[in-house]
Amino acid sequence: DGGITQSPKYLFRKEGQNVTLSCEQNLNHDAMYWYRQDPGQGLRLIYYSQIVNDFQKGDIAEGYSVSREKKESFPLTVTSAQKNPTAFYLCASNTGPGANVLTFGAGSRLTVL
Amino acid sequence: AQSVTQLGSHVSVSEGALVLLRCNYSSSVPPYLFWYVQYPNQGLQLLLKYTTGATLVKGINGFEAEFKKSETSFHLTKPSAHMSDAAEYFCAVRTHNNNDMRFGAGTRLTVKP
User: Fold this and answer.
1) What is the pLDDT of residue B96?
2) pLDDT tens for residues A35-59?
3) In which band, very low, low, confident or very high, does the pLDDT at B98 lie, cut at 50, 70 and 90?
4) Each residue of B13-61: pLDDT tens digit?
């Protein structure tokens, strides 16, 4: 079945460490997104990519980095510059601009110790 | 830019009672509107969407929503709540010419036996 796979499901990090969250999709979608979810704040857009080798900052890109070397993959690196990285991270994809809905992965929960 | 406001971060209903989750949007151009549901530690699933045409849209699990342009609202309803409806619900808006989907802060629905 087609879908989005995020890994790991749970991740613990010490302060000062960089971590990379994986997002892979086999839906042949052009666009991919990373959202951060905190209680009571809904989903906030970190980065998105509409095509391979291109990506744009969302509302809260500081302290994060991404790459889009392959259509299927959109990894997110949470760097040590991110001051409050503990959160639930959701990856999503769709076919591009228009009425298309987003398909979401199951999420990755990052906890900084 | 478009935005979404969900009124009420928590809603509690009895099993069998009407469910009403409120969503108001702001958009300078005709919006596309969505409701998503999230179960604990999972990604978001699409419940229903409005793009154009009929303003009353039906979704999965007996949910429906009505687009009211004059009130800039897209409230979600279900005539009779079921225990399995307990989850967090997100309203979202985007416009037809961009790939930027904006989410509300979410409403947590509790269903009492």
Assistant:
1) 65
2) 999 987 889 999 999 899 999 999 8
3) low
4) 999 999 999 999 998 788 899 999 999 888 899 999 998 888 999 999 9
Chain A residues with beta carbon closer than 8 angstroms to that of B101: 45, 102
Going by C-beta distance under 8 Å and a sequence separation of 6 or more, which residues neighbour residue B53?
A: none
Question: Whole-angstrom Cα distance, residue A68 to residue A55?
Answer: 7
Tokens 């037809």 appear where?
B96
CB contact under 8 A, B42 and A41: no
Q: Sort residue A96 into left (φ over 0), alpha (ψ -120 to 50) or beta.
A: left
Would you call A4 an interface residue with chain B, using a CB distance cutoff of 8 Å? yes
For A42, the closest of B46, B49, B106 (CB atoms) is B106
By the CB < 8 Å criterion, does A73 face chain B?
Answer: no
Compute the mean pLDDT over every residue in chain B, rounded to the nearest whole number: 92
Distance CA A100, CA A85 (A): 30
Q: Using CA of residue A7, residue B41, residue B108, residue B14, what is the dihedral sign?
A: positive
pLDDT at residue A99, as a whole number: 59
CB of A98 less than 8 A from some CB of B: yes
Identify the residue among B101, B102, B108 best suited for mutation to test binding to A, counting A beta carbons within 10 A and taking the highest: B101
> For residue A50, what is the nearest residue in chain B, using CA coordinates?
B99
At B61, is the secondary structure helix, strand, or coil?
helix
